[in-house]
Write a structure and sequence with these properties.
globular; 20% strand; alpha/beta; 3-stranded mixed beta sheet; 5 helices; 348 residues; 7-stranded mixed beta sheet
Length: 348
């Protein structure tokens, strides 16, 4: 794994190591069932395309990202803008122009719903994952999230377009290597609550729970089995053919493991919270700019073909740093790709 450099990205680093442990817990999770009778019959599981957040240092990282790219990754017909880095910003510049030539949907506004499965610390307790609802609320009220405005084509103005929605908690048996079929009932129940392009779900798996894309269990989140350990998280979308409709979600396994966790210690909020936040922000930015896996991706560069906004800034050593979000709360997370700056940045 590459050593991650730390940078404090704010006018001042004063208070960068303040803990968020005492922040408000916000609303408590609402129980929801993982079982939905007939859910599997209302959807083609193969229609759920997957975009993984690949384990750092994986030798075939580029191949896995390209193989899971959406079906509509046609060349944009133009090269990147090549605008270069603006003065005063320490950016890592790539030929990484993201394009959406067919004007596929992006998320202009969406409520974010965290979903916690089988919390081992206490019933309905998000602390097991470092209270990601706090980070989501901070990110939603920050300037960093407005980096997506250039892709959604929304004007920058001080409004919260991706607010924290309802939190949910689910419990039930899962096999050690879980698959989409094991959570499809939960997804169906969630989509019946709210669905479409104005609601997204972040599904959190507890420590020790593995998840695989394939029946042979060779492409997995499996830190206990390094041979099959390929990704840290992913986002996906699919459509039920009943009232549940279209659902957009990310799957967020436990992130304080080698290959997924932030390594620039000490992290402002501890390694657990910041590791969860970094991968979660990666998925959220990609869900906004590429919800159906056919919108903003790199279409013009052979090495970065099919990469999304977070993929291009995940593994370079200079692209993690301390960023200040709402209310002077600091996090150690990865940056995201900006066409405007032609590089990875924390600035809108």
């Amino acid at each position: 794994m590459k050593k991650i450099r730390r940078r404090c990205l704010a006018l001042s680093c004063a208070g960068a190591f303040l803990s968020v442990a005492s922040y408000a817990q916000l609303s408590k999770p609402v129980p929801i069932s993982m079982v939905s009778s007939g859910a599997a019959a209302t959807v083609d599981l193969a229609s759920f395309q997957i975009r993984p957040n690949v384990v750092q240092g994986l030798s075939n990282r580029a191949d896995l990202l390209k193989s899971t790219a959406g079906g509509d990754i046609t060349p944009s017909g133009g090269a990147g803008l090549g605008a270069g880095s603006p003065g005063g910003f320490n950016l890592v510049v790539y030929p990484g122009y993201l394009s959406n030539p067919n004007n596929k949907p992006t998320l202009h506004t969406a409520r974010q719903h965290p979903v916690y499965i089988n919390s081992p610390t206490a019933p309905n307790d998000p602390a097991h994952w470092g209270n990601p609802q706090i980070f989501l609320d901070d990110l939603a009220g920050s300037s960093f999230i407005h980096l997506v405005d250039q892709y959604t084509l929304d004007p920058y103005y001080p409004t919260v377009r991706y607010p924290l929605g309802t939190q949910y908690a689910a419990s039930g048996p899962l096999p050690h290597f879980a698959h989409l079929v094991d959570i499809i009932g939960l997804l169906h129940n969630l989509a019946l609550q709210a669905h479409g392009y104005n609601d997204v779900y972040h599904i959190f798996l507890p420590q020790g729970q593995d998840y695989c894309f394939d029946a042979a269990n060779t492409q997995c989140y499996s830190p206990d089995n390094r041979k099959s350990f390929a990704f840290c998280a992913f986002h996906s979308a699919g459509t039920f053919n009943d009232a549940a409709g279209h659902v957009i979600f990310s799957l967020e396994p436990y992130q304080q493991v080698n290959g997924c966790q932030v390594t620039g210690l000490p992290s402002p909020n501890g390694q657990l919270m910041d590791s969860t936040a970094s991968v979660l922000s990666h998925e959220l930015f990609e869900m906004i700019t590429d919800p159906d896996l056919n919108a903003y991706v790199n279409r013009d560069n052979l090495d970065l073909y099919g990469y999304e906004i977070g993929d291009q800034c995940q593994s370079a050593s200079a692209n993690f740093g301390f960023v200040m979000l709402k209310n002077f709360h600091f996090y150690e997370i990865q940056s995201e790709y900006s066409n405007f700056y032609n590089g990875c940045t924390f600035f809108p």
